[in-house]
């Protein structure tokens, strides 16, 4: 069923402080997605897919991001969907400077973008709670309807910059969504919101299956010089401590099994040195892989040793391809109480516990097969059509929360 997004979003506006005050409809035609990221990962892939799918519902979508990210965002667009307009913009959060400087730079870039684009509504994806404070200041200052989408948030005190900026963010005037319940809970505390104000929207899983498993298994084992019966583990993700990539050498030592590492990141040099120093050649660094699908189909298990995750797309990819998953407790926190049914959870997040969990998985083929079937069913449940309806609902809420007394920009239909 085709959803008319302009009608869905433009039917009415309800002031955040005048909840039932109806105003004449102003149809939303231009949606701006300012992405404050500096690197490409799950948040950015999800943002590209969502922007493309929103474009099929009658709204012009502009995705603005750092110039270096634009080719990666373009490659992540789903086939068969109208690609959003990609616009270079200096919006990335700069960790190398004091927060006040980063906020000022980001705010200036956003102000210029808002003047040039005159959006009717803003969808702001946040890879981290404080990654878009300058964008939030600029958008809130103009009174624009906005939906903030949170992808990751750590346990513990929120970044101090949020408390400093909070009075100028008008957090109550925005609609909010998060990809998991833990992220929603932490973000609500950081931004002074009631937990019920942040809607949890499950990340969708890719459509996949088991087709070509035997061929992929044979081809990749030949490429790696492995025996047909030799177990193969894989790691997919950024090579950084938050993803647990530093544990991979110790895992190869404890398991005496090859681990194919798909990804790039700050720890690449360290892992290359570890790989060169291992005469067994168990740590195989394959670099960034555009399509990890064949690797999921070929592997005996995915190792997911993350110390912090929002809603791991890598797990959903593996589940969709019927690849078993061995994970740290933190890696699948977003799945809540279902996590032990869907993956082999380690007792802790260290290499010893992860190795024990991997051995247990490999030693129990019947139990692993049942677990894989449950995970595949969960991946199938998390479809884009289902998620898109939830995102459209939050965009409608964002339009309803916009103050009818504050005209943020001289839109063509309301210009004097």
Report on the structure:
The chain has 416 residues and is of the alpha/beta class. The chain has two domains: 5-204 and 383-401, Glycogen Phosphorylase B (Rossmann fold, 3-Layer(aba) Sandwich), CATH 3.40.50; 213-381, Rossmann fold (3-Layer(aba) Sandwich). It is built from 16 helices and 13 strands. It has helices at residues 5-10, 42-55, 70-75, 99-117, 133-141, 160-165, 181-190, 213-224, 248-255, 268-276, 293-298, 313-320, 339-342, 351-362, 365-381, 384-401, and strands at residues 30-34, 60-65, 85-88, 121-126, 146-150, 175-178, 198-200, 233-236, 259-262, 283-287, 301-304, 325-327, 344-345. The strands form two sheets. The protein has a seven-stranded parallel beta sheet with strand order 3-2-1-4-5-6-7, with helices on both faces. Helix 4 crosses helix 5, helix 9 (248-255) packs across helix 14 (351-362) and helix 12 crosses helix 15. The radius of gyration is 22 Å and the shape is globular.
How would you summarize what this structure contains?
By secondary structure, the protein is α/β, with parallel strands linked by helices. It has 16 helices and 13 strands.
Features:
416 residues; alpha/beta; Rossmann fold; 2 domains; seven-stranded parallel β-sheet; six-stranded parallel β-sheet
The rounded distance between the terminal residues' Cα atoms is 38 Å
What integer is the average pLDDT?
Answer: 89
CATH architecture of the largest domain: 3-Layer(aba) Sandwich
How much of the residues is beta strand, in percent?
A: 5-15%
Q: Name the overall outline.
A: globular
Domain Glycosyltransferase subfamily 4-like N-terminal: 40-204
InterPro entries: Glyco_trans_4-like_N
Organism: Falsiroseomonas algicola
Keywords: Glycosyltransferase, Transferase
């Amino acid at each position: 069923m085709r959803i008319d997004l302009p009608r869905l979003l433009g039917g009415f506006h309800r002031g955040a402080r005048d909840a039932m005050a109806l105003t004449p409809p102003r149809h939303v035609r231009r949606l701006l997605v300012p992405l404050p990221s500096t690197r490409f990962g799950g948040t950015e892939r999800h943002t590209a897919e969502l922007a493309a799918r929103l474009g099929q519902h009658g709204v012009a979508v502009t995705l603005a991001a750092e110039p270096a990210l634009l080719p990666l965002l373009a490659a992540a667009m789903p086939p068969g969907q109208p690609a959003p307009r990609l616009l270079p913009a200096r919006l990335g959060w700069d960790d190398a400077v004091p927060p006040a400087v980063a906020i000022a730079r980001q705010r200036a870039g956003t102000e210029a973008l808002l003047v040039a684009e005159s959006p009717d509504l803003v969808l702001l994806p946040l890879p981290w709670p404080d990654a878009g404070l300058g964008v939030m200041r600029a958008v809130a200052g103009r009174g624009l309807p906005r939906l903030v989408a949170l992808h990751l948030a750590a346990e513990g005190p929120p970044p101090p910059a949020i408390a400093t900026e909070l009075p100028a963010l008008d957090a109550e005037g925005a609609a909010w969504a998060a990809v998991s319940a833990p992220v929603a809970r932490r973000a609500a505390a950081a931004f002074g919101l009631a937990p019920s104000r942040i809607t949890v929207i499950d990340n969708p899983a890719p459509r996949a299956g088991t087709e070509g498993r035997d061929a992929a298994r044979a081809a990749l084992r030949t490429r790696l010089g492995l025996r047909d019966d030799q177990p193969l583990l894989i790691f997919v993700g950024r090579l950084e401590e938050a993803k647990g990539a530093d544990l991979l050498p110790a895992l190869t030592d404890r398991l005496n099994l090859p681990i194919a590492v798909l990804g790039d990141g700050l720890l690449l040099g360290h892992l290359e040195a570890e790989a060169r120093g291992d005469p067994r050649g168990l740590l195989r660094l394959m670099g960034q892989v555009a399509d990890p699908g064949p690797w999921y189909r070929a592997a005996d298990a995915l190792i997911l040793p993350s110390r912090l995750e929002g809603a791991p797309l890598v797990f959903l990819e593996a589940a969709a391809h019927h690849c078993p998953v061995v994970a740290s407790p933190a890696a699948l926190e977003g799945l809540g109480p279902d996590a032990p049914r869907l993956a082999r959870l380690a007792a802790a997040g260290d290499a010893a516990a992860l190795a024990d969990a991997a051995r247990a998985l490999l030693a129990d083929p019947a139990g692993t097969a049942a677990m894989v079937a449950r995970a595949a069913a969960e991946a199938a449940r998390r479809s884009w059509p289902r998620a898109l309806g939830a995102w459209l609902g939050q965009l409608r809420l964002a339009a309803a929360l916009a103050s009818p007394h504050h005209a943020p920009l001289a839109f063509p239909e309301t210009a004097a």
